[in-house]
Amino acid sequence: MNNRQIDSPERMAKIKIKLVLFINFFVIGILLNSVGIVILQVIEHYGVTKSSASILEAFKDLTIAASSFLLASYIPKYGYKKSMLSSLLIVGIACICMRFFGSFLMAKILFALTGFSFSLIKVSVYSTVGLITSDSNDHASLLSLLEGFFMVGVLSGYWLFGFFIQASTKIPGSLNNPQISWLDAYWVLALLCLISFLILLSTQLDERGAQSENFKILHEFYEMFALIRFPLVLVFVVSAFFYVLIEQSIQTWLPTFNKSVLQIPESISVQIVSILAASIAVGRIAGGYFIKKFNWLIVLTSSLIGAMLLVILVIPITRGIVVGSVKGWYNLPIAAYLLPLVGFFLGPIYPALNSSILSVLPKNRQSAMTGLIVIFSALGGTTGSLITGFIFGHFEGQTAFYFSLLPMSLLLLILFLYNKIRSGFHFKEA
Hints:
Elements: H1 2-32, H2 35-45, H3 50-53, H4 55-71, H5 75-78, H6 80-100, H7 104-132, H8 136-168, H9 185-201, H10 217-226, H11 231-260, H12 266-271, H13 274-293, H14 296-314, H15 334-338, H16 342-346, H17 349-358, H18 363-394, H19 397-402, H20 405-422
Helix pairs in contact: 1-7, 1-8, 1-9, 2-11, 4-7, 4-18, 6-7, 6-9, 7-18, 8-13, 8-17, 10-18, 11-17, 11-18, 11-20, 14-20
């Protein structure tokens, strides 16, 4: 009885910490993955070309890579809680500025600040998972749930922006429709940042287990990149690069694909992408379950093959849709519902890969490894978006989406090499 009473405060603290991690991933998921929505809006409202609009992904991802490169090693010293609080404050202010000064330039600034904040949150959340889980299975399960909830945030973002886009297209002056702009969605996002900030501010987090005894910033910075000396880490970062390239090339350009290829009205083009986010969320939650039952390599290779087959089968039926033929939800082409389901197959891959590398490293090296994950994921996201945007602008939407088959094939081959190296890996300090 006494042991249960002693353990109870610790259990409650862990529950509250997990709640905070979920909320933070939810908020940053909406902001980070709104880039595809904003690309569509700047094309429609600011006269920006598709190739030029694709630079928004670079402002987000290159900032993520640069800030992770410079700050990931310092975050344990600064503190995970402080890092998350700082990031929420930054993006909250950025959202308010976007509402008042909405433009292509402000969108670039917003995504640069969002990318910077995401790098702080990602490293902090991933490292905190290592502090509050007991074994590799527990680690993989919680990480899958967190990434799944991240996609719930992404899903919510599509409906949030879709609501304001739809409201802003109605006739101004109507009694039931005051002057509304799609930019009003940023008021809601700023409020969510404030709520998450206040909850996190009241949460205690013991971070001692993740800090080195003799912390030196240059040494820790060196150790982050010294991890690449391990073949396992090198093959892993290549895998992470290709995965995010695949996901972002589809996720960022799907709203534009829906409007320009499937001829779907603008607000519905955004809202229907929520199926992709929901599919990824369900795929990650399901992946957390199946990885406990089956070998992770079987789960991930099956997922990739399923994604490739879906793209091959669905893209051909997106041709020949007449402009103006789609009036609303009641007559959407079947491809609008089928193509986003690729997320279900892609969903389990990223968190399982991340957990597979983090769970074999000491806790005081997980922050450095997370920094590498964020850096190479960001580079993959930018590469995927820029290539897809270029193909989309110079050829056609179908060709742009067929492109995803190439990195999927490469990732499938790399997974077997990664699994072979991982099976014999043992971490040894230099």
